[in-house]
Amino acid sequence: MKKNTGLLLIAFLIISSCHSKIVKQPHEISGRDSAGNAYGDDRHFLEKHQAMVELTNGNSKVLIAPGYQARVMTSTCGGDTGYSFGWINYALINSGKYMPHINAYGGEERFWMGPEGGQYALFFKPGDPFDLKHWQTPAIIDTAGFELVKKDSTTASFTRSFDLENYAGTMFRVRVDRRIKLLSASEAVAVLHTPIPGVSWVGYQTINTITNAGKNAWLKPQGVLSIWLSSMLKASPQNTVMIPFRNGGASKINSTYFGKVPAERLVKKDSFLFFKTDAKYRSKIGVPPSIVKQLLGDYDASGNVLTIIKFDYNGDSDYVNSTWEHQQFPYKGDVVNSYNDGPNDLGSQLGTFYEMETSSPAIALRKNQSLTHTQYIFHFQGKKNELNEVAKRLLGVSLDEANL
Fold first, then answer.
1. Which residues of the chain fall below pLDDT 50?
2. What radius of gyration, in Å, describes the C-alpha atoms of the chain?
3. Which one, of 286, 276, 258, lies nearest residue 346 by Cα?
């Protein structure tokens, strides 16, 4: 009976699947982003500026930019004319210029590394104050490219080796290996453990490995690294991030990264939170390992899009702390984060996007030892009642509650 049920679920999924030079401040480059574009339009634009790698399975497509650290720029479940899920900064890419602080090219899953702030920070030079003026994304996770190693129709692998220095002056020799796979219907069943109603969907896996390629061990008293995956997605006035957590953990949610998030923009219940992601108010939240679950999601009511992220978590407790200060507890950071863009302290804004983020543990690696962080991203499109069934099964929440 179990075997027959599994085959029915797989068949049902197959049917429903569709399947440098700094010259200006960031706010001085203006223009449109990718909001509302079809996937084929985004691909055509990006191919004019970068060599792209595309994974395909029927109408399901994933578009990767090796020149932007092998980030997934966007995906679709509707072919070339389908909705394009990733946020893409048309104006910045088209300008051909390098920006101070960060080059926010966009992309619905990019490879970063942590910590961002603190005494072991990667985004601040030794001795600099922890403020926006001195914040700088390392070039290797901003403007540098990764090498394409292998590709077939549904899978692509990339690599890059580099040196990196943290705020404490510790030098790291790192090798990154990144593998991106477009998921089949049977693989989606295995990952999600639930049938999917008759909605359109696309899903993919990224396997991200960092290796200590240097001569010395990485030690926590000198600072260690983590894998940090961040998804830039299109914000809208009716967009809400939804994150389940362990019962009774509401008081442990970190909501003070950029000042306390106003109550009307962050609703915390006993085992769930709702975070408004409309790109109107710069804010960030975090979920620590003591209460984290392995799923988070977002619902855009304006476009009837439900996004689900699943990631590996094995009970580790030490995560890098990325707050912009000298920290008392540098390894008491968050596993899951969400960021809503908006006007910053300098009066500029990167774009009309929000982010969902997951991180690996902070692990002290011996020479030639590796750490891997795996993540899955799914996008679903359909009627609200159909998406509501997916949200209830996977996140344990009704979409009627996601109305901030």
1. 1-28
2. 20
3. 258
Q: Are 234 and 87 in contact (CB under 8 A)?
A: yes
Is residue 190 within a helix (H) or strand (E), and if so which, with residue range? Answer: helix 185-192
Distance CA 69, CA 158 (A): 9
Fold of 111-397: Beta-galactosidase; Chain A, domain 5 (2.70.98)
Query: How much is the pLDDT for 196?
Result: 80
- Rounded to whole angstroms, what are the CA distances from 97 to 26, 27, 107, 139? 10, 13, 18, 14
Dist. CA 41–CA 43, nearest whole Å: 5
Let me know the angle formed at the C-alpha of 354 by 306 and 275, rounded to the nearest 5 degrees: 70
DSSP class per residue in 10-71: HHHHHHH-----B-S-GGG-----STT-BHHHHHHHHHTTS--EEEEETTEEEEEEGGGTTE
> Which DSSP state fits 319?
B
195 CB-contact burial (10 Å; exposed 0-12 / middle 13-18 / buried 19+): middle
For the record, the structure tokens of 199 come out as 């909605």
pLDDT attached to residue 24: 33
| pLDDT at 176 (0 to 100) | 98
Beta strands in 42-144 (DSSP E): 53-57, 60-65, 71-76, 110-114
* Both structure tokens of 313: 């978590």
Measured at the CA of 226, the angle between CA 222 and CA 231, to 5 degrees, comes to 145
Mean per-residue pLDDT over the chain, rounded: 91
Full-model pTM: 0.92
Chain-centroid distance, C-alpha 238: 20
Element containing residue 390 per DSSP (H, E): helix 384-394
Side by side, the strands of the sheet bearing 226-234 are 110-114, 226-234, 353-359, 336-340, 283-287
Q: Who contacts 195 (Cβ-Cβ below 8 Å, separation ≥6)?
A: 9, 12, 13, 189
The one-letter amino acid code at 86 reads G
User: CA distances (Å), 280 to each of 42, 145, 233, 331, 349, in order?
Assistant: 24, 31, 14, 31, 10
pLDDT of residue 29: 55
Domain boundaries, given as residue ranges, for the chain: 111-397
Residue 265's contacts (CB-CB under 8 Å, 6 or more residues apart) are: 275, 276, 281, 283, 340, 404
Residue 309 in contact with residue 296, Cβ under 8 Å?
Answer: yes
Tens-digit pLDDT profile for residues 249-301: 999 999 999 899 999 999 999 999 999 999 999 999 999 999 999 999 999 99
